[in-house]
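We modelled the chain as a single entity of 728 amino acids. Its sequence is:
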Amino acid sequence: MATGHVLDVASARPRPARRRRAIVCLAAVALSAVTVAPVGPVAAKDRAGGSPVVEPAVHSDVSAPLSGMTPAPIVDVKERKEKKKFALPLGAAGGEDSAVQGSLGTEAAPATTTSFDGIGKGLGTYAPRWAPPDTNGAVGPDHYFEIVNADIAVFSKSGALLYGPVPTNTLWSGFGGSCQVRDDGDGVVEYDRLAGRWVITQFTNDNTNTECVAVSTTGDPLGSYARYSFTYPAFPDYPKLAVWPDAYYITFNLFNSTGFAGGMVCAYDRANMLVGASASQQCFNLGTGVGGLLAADVDGSTPPPAGSRESVLNFGSNRLNVWKFHVDWATPANTTLTGPTAIGVASFSPACGGDCVPQPATTQRLDTLSDRLMTRLAYRNFGDHESLVVNHSVATGFLNQGPVGVRWYELRNPAGTLTVFQQGTYAPDSTHRWMGSIAMDQSGNVGLGYSASSSSVRPSLRYTGHLVTDPLGVMGQGEGILQAGTGSQLPSLGRWGDYSSMTIDPSDDCTFWYAGEYLKVDGTFNWSTRIGSFRFPNCGSPAATAPGAPTAVTATAGSGQATISFSPPASDGGSPITSFTVTSSPGGMTASGPSSPLTVTGLTNGTTYTFTVHATNAVGSGPESAPSNGVTPTGTPPPTITTTTLPQGRLNTPYSATMQASGGVQPYTWRIAAGALPPGLSLNASTGTISGTPTKVANFSFTVAVNDSQTPAQTASRALTLKISKKS
């Protein structure tokens, strides 16, 4: 909820402020590595060099239990009007989306297991003070902790309200300074599963440029907190927090009096904060060409491998950009931030740079916030691989005039070279979907929640999923409705959500918890939030693996080839086998197909070969089988079709062309194996001559095959195209 300026990167001129939150258009990041320039606490401009700025917390203490604190007074209740919106440049437009999923998954989405209203209109006497709500939440073993702009509440996992809503700065009662007296929002809550603690942050929108941080001293969200305040050289807007073993990482978009001052990433001393000791931060400012950063946030009980660097991402034109953050608390001079490394992705263009999502019964459209990745960048260590999932809002359709969709990615190997394992854009019909949040369960299933709206659908909360057995890049699990909206947001309030929240229940590591914004009736500043959970039925069963090795592999020699028969492996790894591959030794000649037998060609007569077979499923390829018996191809090599092109024909003009072949044993027998000849032409099976009078103008593609006279016959084929044109 920051005031400030919006930076027009194209002109480098600050533009007038919007109400409460300054939004930066993220400029494309150069593909070459950049010099990382840190920002110090005394000036907004970048310092030279690549060392972090290290600063202790301005103040710290340990609080009394939250449950016993008197709620802080409500402040700033008068400002309830959004100022004029200014369109954002698209920045990183990259072309028409090439990864759109244009239809719903064929399986039914799982039903919600829990669903209840969070903070917002309808929760007791609560009245929203700001817009948008900035819905954020986290689930623990026994509680759901929700934070919206300037307010917090704690619920049981069945939906009973246990505490709140109260102003967020209640948590800093008695702390002093701006953390205690300001309640400016953009709050974030995380459940640190690795330590069993809660972490809450909120900024203060005053000239102190402060981020307030609280870490629970136990697993009780209503207990006491170790509290800290950190300051920055410019206003730290849009903070996003992440849990990693060596630090709590946080990212900001910095703004000063002249506009955007850079994208910043900082590490907080997690080890000291967990014991309530004094703590410091180490920060880098990546400069004004970089913003909208997210740091990887650990899900699951298995931490990253020891010493793993933190991944920090944003996006550019048809790419993701990744930096690696290594923090050294003992010797800060050894701390490094390297990058960016560009990761190519399927082409996309960010959704409109302002209000473009329609609603029923109003001309007011909603903001997509498409200039940045949407929280969270969720990390999980599966043992045999590590994955990250993240999403953002993109344009779809011809000339990007289709509905807004959610582009999502699963990235693998963050410890080495980060690569795209799968990606897709979820836009299954004409309804707009945006403001997503994504996570993975212990089995590798993906849950995606988002807002949905159109001219006939009031803004609603929905979710979908990708199972490990679904095709890569496809949300195959239909669509569930967490909350159907019954109100539209009226003029002149276009801001929506700013983010939503998908987290994983630590109790079973399977249940997804999603929270986001909706409206019960038409209006402005009358938002509600909904919190709900769902679970995929296959979660908790053993994760799918690569299949086992095929058995009973036998080879039969031919002339220049061998036919290999085999039995499928005893286990498909929990995912259907999609193909088998045979490999010769020596030579490494291969043949692939869906089943036995397979024929390997291109072998040398007189050479003895053995063969192995492996199976592949959605997870990957399994081990090679034991070698087959040895065989020695003999005889005449198979024929080869030497004709590579056919002369052009003319409409209604006699045509004749004879194809040629070599090798094998003559005479040959010719046939059309696939496709068809142009109407009016035929193939002589004995001579290989195509003749007749063509009667249609077009390009005709077909496959011709030739058999020789060996027993068994050897076959060759070739794809050809015959063009028939009009008479000149």
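As a brief sanity check on the tokenised model: The first strand starts at residue 6 and ends at 8. Residues 1-49, 81-90 have pLDDT under 50 and may be disordered.
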